[in-house]
Amino acid sequence: TAQLPQDCTAISGEAAYTVHAGTRHALPGTQEVFAYDIRTLVVPPCSRVTVTLVNDDATRHQWLLHGLPFALYPGGLFMLEANGGQRVTGTFIVPGAAARYPVQSTNAQNSSLGMQAELVVEAPVPGLPRGSLVLILAMALTSGSLLLTMRKRSE
User: Fold this and answer.
1) SS (H, E, C) 95-129
2) Which residues pair with 22 in a beta bridge?
């Protein structure tokens, strides 16, 4: 859609993600069977977001985003669907307010077996290049997990 959400006066920028879907992206040692390789997408408010869904399986997969403005997106939804081995691309514009939007498969069983993600709309941190905050947070979470694991093993 080219129409802006009500709380946006202009498109603030562009964001593009290629998301792979399939069994090989499920986390080992969990109940997951299907998953997306990117589980958190972070974009600035009022940005135009392009998502390419690449289906790495033989079965059909979807990428369904909930919570967009009903006036612009039927049911407040944006969906991509790719048959096995295919890729599809779509574009949408996020609202201006910071928010978290759930993403899942339209197949309830696939969704419950791990095919879930989240789109996060947040303002960029001044002085940090785009993507830096996510990398810093990922490193901090990974380090915290390693420390927790090391403590448990040494007890």
Assistant:
1) CCCCEEEEEECCCHHHHHCCCEEEEEECCCCCCCC
2) 35
Q: DSSP label at 143?
A: H
- What tokens appear for 59 in the block? 């079965």
Give 93's strand partners. Answer: 48
As given in the structure block, the two tokens for residue 40 are 């958190």
Give burial (CB, 10 Å; 0-12/13-18/19+) of 29.
Answer: exposed
Give rounded-to-5 percent helix, strand, coil for the chain.
Answer: 20, 35, 45
pLDDT tens digits, one per residue of 46-62? 999 999 999 999 989 99
Residue 63 has pLDDT above 90, yes or no: yes
pLDDT tens per residue across span 133-154: 444 444 444 444 433 333 323 2
Residue 89 contacts residue 51 (beta carbons within 8 Å):
yes
DSSP, collapsed to helix, strand or coil, labels residue 132 as helix
**CA 121 – CA 95 distance, rounded (Å):** 8
* Cα gap 38→35, rounded to integer Å: 9
pLDDT band of residue 125 (cuts 50, 70, 90) is: low
